[in-house]
Design brief:
By secondary structure, the protein is of the alpha+beta class. It contains 9 helices and 28 strands. The protein binds 2-acetamido-2-deoxy-beta-D-glucopyranose (NAG) (7 copies). The site of one 2-acetamido-2-deoxy-beta-D-glucopyranose has 6 residues, from loops.
């Protein structure tokens, strides 16, 4: 069974370039082959009020004019979905429904096949504009919904349409490229999406995620992408073979990806998310107990491991690790920031907040450095990634700063697999993360010196 699944996946990966090749030659003009970039570039902005910030990008889709749709970035998301009832992306003339017998339908892990032209709901009297008589029904993940996968039944229809993309020099790349995603009805998001977000861009380790689709569009072998989440200005997702300045690249640490699907080798149990193995935490160089059974392995329900997430605004630790971690931080703090006073009632969702925190000349809080130690790769010892004040402390208001890590029991997510630790968005802001699922590893840069993902462009670093 396991072997079968692996073969199945492999076969898809091998055939994938063919599907995209076919769609290109189908009524679309290829301008010239050297239009094929080595890497494509999407901007990320940070949105939302404290404490529920999120990271947004936009895709430009459809015809007659490309419509810009704001979407949340979900690092572990398995595909891309758009609210096609209630967004700028509407009534596109270049849209094609993916036939439920087509291989692209399998990419989106279709749940059913049927006629979506006679579906009317309480809020809709006419068929959806993206209806199809042989619709490929899909059930994408809505990470903002409190219930996993928004219940049962039909949730979306797989479609294909043109997308505009840019290279790392921020130039539009002709010709219009084809992209496969899910059109979900408004009822799917049902008010769960923050701000003016109209869907989700998944960057997961899956066949239909944004990085995978573009990798195959450009026929590069290696599935690889970089993410830099912004603290304030602009961040980036770069998909493709992006050559970094070797000097900068030497500052990266690398650790293997943990595969949840090795524990659960059945279709449907595979992890599209990115997990790593955290072997130790150090505060100011002193060890905090970490239970590796929790942070590096999965139990028979799939709970455990250390997940990297762009949907969780802050890092989350299982209680048995959080408490000693916080204690160690409080113990070391006075030697960095004498005037810091612990507040009686911390601001939710945090466990400890302070007034009178010292600030150094660069405006960063003076706090003990936190080291996350990850499992070694084949070629190195265990690797250490350091978190400084800019990523460990959250300024809540005026003089109030909070320890930017959250205890797990305070966070409730129904029906979701519960990692032992989540490395959340705030902690990875202004660092470059490299995801290389084809070599099964993740890289972390230190926090960028001028603290600007904005500068993360080719030949600039
Ligand atoms: C093809 O590319 C050339 C040069 O890059 C450009 O001038 C031209 O407008 C493009 N044609 C189309 C149809 O996109
Ligand atoms: C959608 O486009 C079709 C033609 O492509 C047009 O007949 C129809 O009126 C449009 N519907 C809306 C709601 O704009
Ligand atoms: C839609 O129409 C098809 C064919 O007429 C029918 O088999 C199917 O049950 C209908 N679906 C719904 C939801 O009404
Ligand atoms: C239907 O519309 C009402 C009001 O416009 C809204 O409150 C409700 O959530 C919608 N229901 C669905 C399933 O979208
Ligand atoms: C680590 O966690 C596992 C799973 O919860 C537990 O069985 C084990 O006793 C823990 N080990 C330590 C040293 O706390
Ligand atoms: C300020 O503190 C950060 C760590 O919080 C450190 O990386 C940086 O070098 C410090 N800057 C100065 C000027 O002391
Ligand atoms: C742990 C878990 O989720 N196991 C599921 C893996 O997938 C099979 C088939 O879909 C289910 O039967 C298991 O319950």
């Amino acid at each position: 069974m396991a072997l079968f699944t692996t073969l199945f996946r492999l076969l898809f990966l091998l055939l994938l370039p063919l599907f995209f090749l076919v769609t290109h030659s189908h009524g679309l003009e290829l301008n010239s082959t050297n239009q094929k970039p080595k890497a494509v570039y999407f901007t990320i902005t940070k949105k939302g009020p404290f404490p529920h910030h999120y990271y947004m990008t936009y895709l430009r889709l459809g015809t007659p004019s490309l419509q810009s749709v704001n979407l949340a970035v979900d690092l572990g998301g398995d595909s891309v979905w758009v609210d096609c009832d209630n967004s700028n992306y509407k009534n596109s003339s270049s849209f094609k429904a993916v036939n439920c017998r087509a291989a692209q339908c399998d990419l989106l892990r279709s749940t059913a096949c049927g006629n979506s032209c006679n579906i009317t709901t309480t809020n809709r009297t006419s068929p959806p504009w993206y209806c199809s008589t042989r619709a490929c029904y899909t059930k994408p993940v809505n990470p903002f919904s409190s219930s996993a996968a928004a219940g049962s039944g039909v949730t979306g229809v797989a479609v294909r349409d043109v997308i505009s993309i840019r290279n790392t020099a921020d130039e539009d790349l002709s010709p219009p490229w084809q992209f496969v995603f899910t059109c979900a009805p408004s009822s799917f998001s049902a008010g769960s999406l923050p701000g003016d977000i109209k869907g989700v861009v998944g960057l997961g380790d899956s066949l239909a995620s944004l990085p995978t689709q573009f990798t195959h569009t450009f026929f590069t072998r290696r599935r690889k992408f970089f993410v830099c989440l912004p603290e304030r200005s602009r961040g980036v997702v770069i998909v493709g073979d992006h050559d970094l300045n070797p000097e900068f690249y030497r500052t990266f640490i690398h650790t293997p990806l943990l595969r949840r699907n090795t524990a659960f080798p059945y279709k449907g149990n595979e992890s599209m998310e990115y997990y790593v193995c955290l072997v130790a935490i150090k505060v100011n160089g002193r060890d905090v107990p970490v239970n590796r059974t929790l942070t590096c392995t999965f139990d028979d329900k799939g709970n455990g491991g250390t997940k990297i997430s762009t949907v969780d605004p802050y890092s989350v630790l299982e209680s048995s690790m959080y408490q000693p971690f916080l204690k160690a931080f409080l113990k070391e703090l006075p030697s960095f920031s004498k005037g810091a006073k612990l507040m009686k009632n911390p601001v939710k969702p945090f466990g400890a907040c302070f007034t009178g925190m010292g600030i150094n000349r660069t405006g960063l809080p003076r706090v003990p450095p936190i080291d996350l130690v990850f499992m070694r790769t084949e070629y190195s010892n265990d690797v250490t990634w350091r978190i400084h004040g800019g990523n460990s402390m959250v300024r809540v208001s005026g003089d109030v700063m909070c320890f930017g890590f959250v205890e797990q029991s305070r966070v409730i997510k129904k029906d979701m697999k519960q990692p032992a630790m989540v490395i959340g968005g705030y902690q990875i802001e202004e660092s470059v993360l490299e995801f290389d699922p084809s070599r099964s590893k993740v890289g972390f840069s230190p926090r960028l010196e001028k603290a600007k993902c904005d500068d993360f462009k080719p030949n600039h670093m």
